[in-house]
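Customer escalation, tier 2.

The customer says the design service returned an amino acid string that "doesn't look like it belongs to this structure." They asked us to rerun it and document both sides in this ticket. The original structure tokens are below, unchanged.
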């Protein structure tokens, strides 16, 4: 049983590093201009949005408020750390007030 666990961990590590190495090899072959570049530039934001939106919607009004405040603070100040602190503070306040 233990040998199988180590095998699965080692196989997952090999697959992970092969994917990363393959990405590095392919990165040099991707177009640097045009529609593909615009798509790749927008991809991190869309992935982040797909992770944040469901949690914000499932959390109710306070979660939506915290998400909006975090986004606005980040846009205005450019400081992600302070923006995250603001969002956490809003959620903590809502839980402290038991709302």
């Amino acid at each position: 049983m233990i040998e199988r666990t180590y095998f699965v961990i080692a196989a997952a590590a090999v697959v992970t590093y092969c994917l990363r190495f393959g990405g590095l090899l392919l990165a040099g072959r991707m177009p640097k201009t045009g529609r593909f570049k615009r798509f790749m530039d927008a991809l991190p934001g869309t992935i982040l949005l797909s992770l944040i939106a469901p949690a914000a919607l499932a959390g109710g009004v306070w979660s939506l408020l915290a998400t909006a405040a975090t986004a606005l603070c980040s846009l205005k100040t450019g400081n992600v750390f302070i923006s995250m602190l603001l969002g956490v503070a809003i959620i903590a306040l809502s839980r402290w007030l038991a709302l």
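Tier 2 assessment: The sequence is consistent with the input. The chain has a mean pLDDT of 90. The longest helix spans residues 2-27. Sent an explanation to the customer and offered a walkthrough call.
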